[in-house]
Amino acid sequence: MKTITRYIFPVLLVCSLLLSACGGGATTQAPAATEPAATEPSGATEAPGATEAPGATEAPGTGGTAECPAGVEGMAIEMWSPFTGPDGDEMTALAERFSSENTCGITVTHVAQPEYQQKLEAAAAAGGLPAMTAVHATRIAALVSRNVLKPFGPEAMAVFGDDFGSEFPEELWSVGEINGERYSIPLDVHPLIMFYNKDLFAAAGIEEPGTEPWTREEFEDALAKLETSGVTPLSLGTAFQAAALFQALIRQNGGSLTDEAGATATYNSEAGVQALEKIKELRDKYTPDIAGTGDPEVNFFKEGNVGMTFHGPWWISDLQKLDFVGFAPLPTIGDQPATWGGSHHLALTSEDPATQAAAAVWIKWLSDNSAAWAAAGQVPARQSVRDDPNLASVAAPISRVVESANMVALPTQAAGLEGALWDQFGPVIDAYLAGDVTDAKAALDEAAAKSQQVMEENLSTYGG
Amino acid sequence: MATKVEALNVPATRKARKKISIIPYLFIVPHLLFFAAFLAWPFFYGVYISLFRFDFLRPDRRPFVGLKNYVELFDPKSVPFDDFWNGLSNTGEFILWSVLPLVGIALVLAVLLNRNYPGRGTFRTIFFAPYTLSVTVASVLWWWIFQGQGGLVNNILKGIGLDPPNWLGDMPGAWIAITIATVWWTIGFNTIIFLTALQEIPKSLYEAAAIDGANSQQQFMLITIPMLRSVMVFVLTITLIASANLFGQPYLMTGGGPAEGTQTVIYRIFIEGIQRSQMGRAAAMSIFVAVLLLSLTYLNFKFFGSTQEQ
Amino acid sequence: MSTLQPTRNDIPETEVEIGESRLSKLGFYVLMTLFALFFLLPLLWMVSTAFKPFEEWLSASWIPENPTLENFTSIFNDKSLPVVSWFFNSLLIAALFTAAILIIDSLAGYAYARLEFPGKNFLFGLMLATLVMPGIMFLIPNYLTVARLEWIGKIQGVIAPGLSGVFGVFFMRQFFQSLPRELEEAAYIDGASVWHTFVSVILPLSKGPIITLGIITFLTSWNDFLWPLLILGGNRNELTLPVGLATLQGQYTFDYGKLMAGALVLTLPVLLLYAIFQRYIIRSISMTGIKG
User: Fold this and answer.
1) How far apart are CA A108 and CA A92, in angstroms?
2) Pairwise CA distance, residues B168 & B177, whole Å
3) C195 by DSSP, 3-state: which?
4) What does the alpha-carbon distance between residue C149 and residue A287 come to, in Å, rounded to a whole number?
5) Which of A49, A194, B237, C43 is the most exposed place for a label (fewest CB within 10 A)?
6) pLDDT for residue A422 is more than 60
């Protein structure tokens, strides 16, 4: 015993100093500020990195709510969100503006939470949830089934009015409806868009894209012209970018990740196989070998010798500092226009009717004024905001890609989607692009079978 | 011994001599309270929930499943099987990558530090400095250094005309990057242990050997190595256990990729328990890993022989 | 081998003859410098990136062409300057935690080292058993316990679970066991109680290990991220430094300059502490596992 104890002591020293694994102190040095893309290849990635908004202008379609619901006078609402960093500052500014402007005496405090999912769940277990939260679309179903998010009561719904849903694209609005109840209001969407090099386009004789996505002919024409002019046509990596592109291309080819009910994985269909093979083809022909997390493909694009790349709008604030960068929706590489997108929604975590009503007033105002949020690098979900010509002066790059909101393909709402879908096909994509796997169909079939297994288990974990 | 004794119930006969004092208990009680509440309780709670399908937010959905969570780990058709064994094999791979450098280089550094020369203290300080950083800072720093485009390593490689590889996006680049980061971060500790052991070796041994005509090579092989045997076992063991617990570096540097190739078993437990809300399954995996580690430690002692000093 | 009996020296440094030639001395220093560079350069790169403006983040040069403080402005340029609060919160929490650990673990360590009581080995074994469990399993149960005690958002909530750690107990135990028993026996013969012996005889001899344990504990608390994140958060000014800095990084940030600036702000206090106290840390760590 003495022998062992002599050595256990340094074991402890090592354990407690090195990593979380040994239980001592029950503190885990868990992941912090950054979440590399490959962890969540698509759904849960977020749009960050914003510069200061060029002046928060009063957005179009304000139509401020005139009457205040009963009982909201003087309410203080705390809103959590995953919006750390500069995005968060933008949201905080909006919250402060609302607090000072609204005539109902409601004050809103915005609290950005790193690891917000864990925080929400821990708070739910301990009974310390705030009034409301911003949330990623893909998490909504699971959070609902675990009683973290609460349905919008009639007092809250009255604030929005019956026609509110028509002001959003169907895909986004339906995310918030579960079992006939409303659980969220869409705030924004962050789609996969195209960044292109204006100078290289001009030199190669390519006409810049407008606000409509390029057709397949236009895209392939551009590729050819760039190749002829001697520059690298495309910058395509693996990890997040490849996975997002895969999802976009499946939709473009007419397929989808799951069936309509969200009960069967269908990404191994012909559309999916073609999507995967197409990405490999593009990478082999038009792009140097770039791989890994950290978006190295964008860094490569920034060097100035690449014609195009595809990524999320969180890169806008960074790339708009370079004069040669232009913005456009994702081209149609398959048969029809579509793109991948993540989406932020606003949801309620409190059941108290007065709190819900007050939160609803804030949500409505925020939606009306979401042009300012666009300046933070998101495409507003609200139709009227997107249509407003003033958007261009507030957030020029966003105004160029607003069409993406109508093209975006969100997977059918189901709890635990990440584990079921992305965790399975993500590695397959990486392996296929690296050449470790050569039969796309077989690999996708295997992954889909695994996805099916997990989806079935999800049913028992989260409920139908 | 005239220890002040407050006898509680002194058993009349057999143990008349041995009085039970409450003094020791007073010493240990403060720590024991916290230990019981925050270490022991969760431990037993973990064993308990490993017998359920457990979601801490759904009291209504906690079916008792007995040993199912454990059995699943060995059933190739079950949901967690592939990922769990992928995790274990990745952990094994990292152990193979890292243990030799972590022990071998530490020994070399210790030998180099084991002399008296100007600047020795400064060198020692520098070698140990990274150990004071948090796992987050160390991992993010090396993630940045190994970035495919714009990272320090590839900048240097490009500068001398070499093709810059995708460190974090390829195998074995990802393991190389993680290993280098881990060595940089933690080797100071092993080094100091070796250094101390080296300093325990009486210099008269070396002097005597020198008189007998042994050169420094022979001195190293015939004196240093044998005298270090028990310390070697010990450093090996703690390094093994530390490597088996790898989580922070792959999480922050590669996200477990490429293609889940750096997703270690602890990482897997994190995903199952925290991200997928399968706490019962995560608990079962944890206990399995714990038993594995205990066995590993025991075997290590057994195989490499006595831990007593010669 | 010589017939001389090897003696155990207490001299901390032994001298082994290096080859006397200039060349081999030079070679030795070159080797040492290369190693030192391996350890230093990443830290210097962190500093270099932290002072680079946005346009230069990807540049290969070590010295920024236009060094700037812009990466630090998001940290230091807020109206309420929360970073100062965060710094002092971290300081306070780490100090309280360290003081508590030193007291609790010295007491317990001494008991396990020197005092006899039934159940001693059992408790010891229990502590060992909990060690090999992955730390993730302790997170939620402890959160629930802290919630029930209504310590969420309070310093007690941040500190309490860490006080269960066994490392400090073992550390002190190891040291106490290495002290010669004669000291205590002498005290007992003089009629001193256990408590009195502990306080007046043992503790004064334990300054080194106590300082070392204190420093290691302080470092651990300072670097802690996830637990303070879960417990704190209502009021922005109540966060600790690592958690606060995390709120400044965008969710998906690849703002390398800002990342490195944040890392630098987190790291400098720690490195400073280390530079001042490194002799104690290294000397006391060297006591592990070697001496019985």
Assistant:
1) 9
2) 7
3) helix
4) 58
5) C43
6) yes
The torsion of the CA quartet B277, B281, B282, B286, rounded to 10 degrees, works out to 170
Please, is B159 exposed, middle or buried when counting C-beta atoms within 10 Å of its C-beta (0-12, 13-18, 19+)? exposed
At a CB cut-off of 8 Å and minimum separation 6, what does C21 contact? none
With cut-offs at 50, 70 and 90, classify the pLDDT of residue C255: confident
Contact B254 A36 (CB under 8 A): yes
Question: Which H or E run contains A134?
Answer: strand A132-136
- Cα(A380)–Cα(A392) distance, rounded to whole angstroms? 13
Strands A177-178 and A132-136 come out as unpaired
Per-position DSSP letters for A382-429, written without gaps between them: -HHHHH-TTHHHH-HHHHHHTTHHHHEEPPPP-TTHIIIIIHHHHHHH
The confidence score (pLDDT) of residue A21 equals 33
Inter-residue contact B194 to B235 (CB < 8 Å) = yes
Chain C hits for B32, Cβ within 8 Å: 108, 123
As for the ipTM of the complex, it is: 0.81
Distance in angstroms (rounded) separating the CA atoms of residues B290 and C133: 5
Helix (H, G, I), strand (E, B) or coil at C40: helix
- Looking at the complex, report in whole angstroms how far the Cα of residue A315 sits from the nearest Cα belonging to chain C: 9
B169 CB neighbour count, 10 Å cutoff:
28
- Range list of β-strands (E), C169-289: none
Of A129, A50, A57, A119, the closest CA to residue A88 belongs to: A50
Rounded to 5 degrees, φ, ψ at A197 are -95, 110
**Sequence-distant (≥ 6) Cβ neighbours of residue A143 within 8 angstroms:** A120, A135, A149, A347
pLDDT at A215 over 70: yes
d(CA C89, CA C222): 10
d(CA C238, CA B253): 29
The CA-atom distances, in angstroms, between B241 and each of A18, A150, B200, B282, C132 are: 11, 44, 26, 19, 9
For residue range A45-65, what is the model confidence (pLDDT) as tens digits? 333 333 333 333 333 444 444
Q: Which of A153-157, A313-317, B63-67 has the lowest mean pLDDT?
A: A313-317
pTM: 0.84
Q: Which residues contact B202 (CB under 8 A, 6 or more apart)?
A: C6, C7, C8, C9, C14
The residues near C104 (Cβ < 8 Å, ≥ 6 apart) are: B30, B31, B34, C163, C168
Question: Residue holding tokens 């290849």?
Answer: A41
How far is the alpha carbon of B279 from chain C, nearest alpha carbon, in Å?
8
CB contact under 8 A, A293 and B257: yes
Comparing C-alpha atoms, which of A243, A242, A237, A240 is closest to residue A296?
A237
Report d(CA C238, CA A156) in Å as an integer: 32
How many whole angstroms separate alpha carbon C43 and alpha carbon B141?
Answer: 8
- Which helix or strand (DSSP H or E) is residue B227 part of? helix B225-227
Binary contact (A82, C248; C-beta < 8 A): no
- Sheet order of strands, A325-329 included: A232-235, A306-311, A193-197, A325-329
Q: Say which residues have a Cβ less than 8 Å from residue B180's Cβ, sequence separation at least 6.
A: B142
Q: Give the mutation candidate from B55, B246, B275 for the A interface (greatest A CB count, under 10 A).
A: B275
Q: Write out pLDDT tens, residues A105-125.
A: 999 999 999 889 988 998 998
DSSP state of B290: H
Q: How far apart are CA C159 and CA C228, in angstroms?
A: 9
CA distances from B83 to A38, A250, A292, B58, B260 (A): 16, 26, 21, 25, 9
Query: Which two three-digit tokens encode residue B36?
Result: 């019981």
Distance from CA of B205 to the nearest CA of A (A): 26
